[in-house]
User: Which sequence fits this backbone?
C-alpha cells in the first residue's frame, strides 16, 4: 500500500514541477507556448540521450511519461534502439517509429475535436 502512495506522490510532484516550470516560463518570459512545448520535447530528448530519462520515468511513472518531456524521452529511446538494431540509419527511423502512436493519436483526436466543436475568436 505504501508503494502505491509513494508512486502517486512522486508522479504528482514530478508532473507538478514540470507544470510549474512551464507556467513560470509563460508568466516571467516572453516565450510563446509553442516555444515552451518545443523546449519540453527537446529537454526530454536530451534527458533520454544522456540516460537520465529512464530513471526519472521509473521514479515518477506517469508524472514523467505523460507530459511532453516523456514524448521527447520516447523519441530518444527509439533512436537508441534503432541505432543498436539498424546502425546509423536508425537515427532517422527510430524516433519516428517510437513516436508514431502518440502522433497518430494526437492527429486523430485533433481532427475529431475540429469536427465536433466550432472555433471562436478570442475576445480581449
Assistant:
Amino acid at each position: 500500500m505504501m508503494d502505491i502512495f509513494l508512486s502517486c506522490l512522486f508522479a504528482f510532484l514530478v508532473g507538478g514541477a514540470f507544470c510549474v516550470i512551464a507556467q513560470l516560463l509563460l508568466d516571467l518570459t516572453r516565450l510563446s507556448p509553442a516555444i515552451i512545448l518545443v523546449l519540453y520535447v527537446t529537454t526530454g530528448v536530451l534527458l533520454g540521450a544522456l540516460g537520465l530519462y529512464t530513471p526519472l520515468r521509473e521514479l515518477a511513472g506517469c508524472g514523467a511519461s505523460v507530459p511532453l518531456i516523456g514524448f521527447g524521452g520516447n523519441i530518444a529511446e527509439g533512436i537508441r534502439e534503432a541505432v543498436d538494431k539498424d546502425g546509423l540509419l536508425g537515427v532517422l527511423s527510430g524516433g519516428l517509429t517510437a513516436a508514431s502512436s502518440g502522433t497518430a493519436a494526437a492527429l486523430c483526436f485533433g481532427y475529431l475535436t475540429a469536427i465536433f466543436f466550432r472555433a471562436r475568436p478570442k475576445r480581449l
